[in-house]
Design a protein that fits this description.
This protein has 17 helices and 14 strands. It has 437 residues and is an alpha/beta fold. The protein has two domains: 364 residues, Divalent-metal-dependent TIM barrel enzymes (TIM Barrel, Alpha-Beta Barrel); 59 residues, no CATH class. The two termini are 43 Å apart.
Length: 437
Amino acid sequence: MSYFPQVEKIQFEGKETKNKFAFRHYNADEIVLGKPMKEHLRFAVAYWHTMTQDGSDPFGMPTNERTWIGATEMETAKNRVEAFFEILEKLGAEYFCFHDIDVAPAGDSIEEFMNNLDEITDLIKVKMDQTGIKLLWNTANMFSHPRFNNGAGSTNDPEVFAYAAAQVKKGLDISKKLGGANYVFWGGREGYETLLNTDMKFEQDNIARLFKMVIAYAEKNGHKPQFLIEPKPKEPSKHQYDFDAATTMAFIQNYGLEGDFKLNLEANHATLAGHTFEHELRVAREYDALGSIDANQGDMLLGWDTDEFPTNVLDVTLAMYEILQNGGIAPGGINFDAKVRRSSFAMEDLLLAHIAGMDTFARGLKVAAKLIEDKFIENVIAERYGKWSSTDIGKSILAGEEDLESLSTYAYKHGDTIKLESSHIEYVKSVLNDYLF
């Protein structure tokens, strides 16, 4: 059965095409900076927003029309596997991501949940073997169920901690079974409501304790994917321990997890943290911790996680610049953690939205590549900091030849002749527009 019988495999037709089921910019085999475009971009489709999101919001009932709903939860879950791989094949996406609860019903007990996971991931493995599509990452949903009201790793209840550990163990077993390249932790409830009843150090010690159990089990199990922590500042917890890239890196370094954990960064989470996406990517890159990204965008007029498909070419260009400067993102990838808008409720919108996101990243990749080839940003930065390499005082400071006494002497002699250079930042942005358009 085909869930999208009216749509053939999406092909690249160029920007002049009027075919809405065609790529205008994403040409998978086009060579950019010596590699095919698909190797730079490593697109993945998210199971949760694509297959389980229903179009509801805090103020409205579901709107999405979906033809894979069956008579039982397990029938629906099996239908979703078929529909999902049809979407992947028609888009030419080579990777996918999922939470455990996305693919299999929780049932009435932990045993039933684990059995359901086994049955559905068996079907997923068959489809993977048939298509060659790979698992970019999976994860355990340890935030939706009421048992995680006070966190998973950070919970005040050791029985909940044990349940979380069992869920993660199963996730790692599934990762091994499906050959997952990465495994993600998003601590949706790993935070606190008020310090009046919270032991922050104890909670973070326990999160680290769980992560160290994860490392030990992965080594014992003979399958150790790249572990990723996904920062987010709020929603649902008021004070989340993984607020942003810098906060999360402080946690990783504090607990000695640098060799095993990197970051999975999301554009909309950067917005909620008060940062740009490229800021978060730069922080991770400078820590050698840029592992993977979730591709989406937020609505600047709304204060919550809207998870829109990325269509802003400037933002994506600056993100791709950081990724290219990082030497790429493998074994991570670009996962569309994005959902169609409430008004885009038709089945075909799932394909059209991913086409829009893939085309936007293709455009961003090509512009970022041109910026790197021309050394445009590098030259702007080099000129701004040029006095450090062109003046005697700059060179001697960098060489470690100065101290407070010698620099004070220099300042008394030359301090009144300091001449600052303008950044001409408006001109720089104007030239950047020339690259974009």
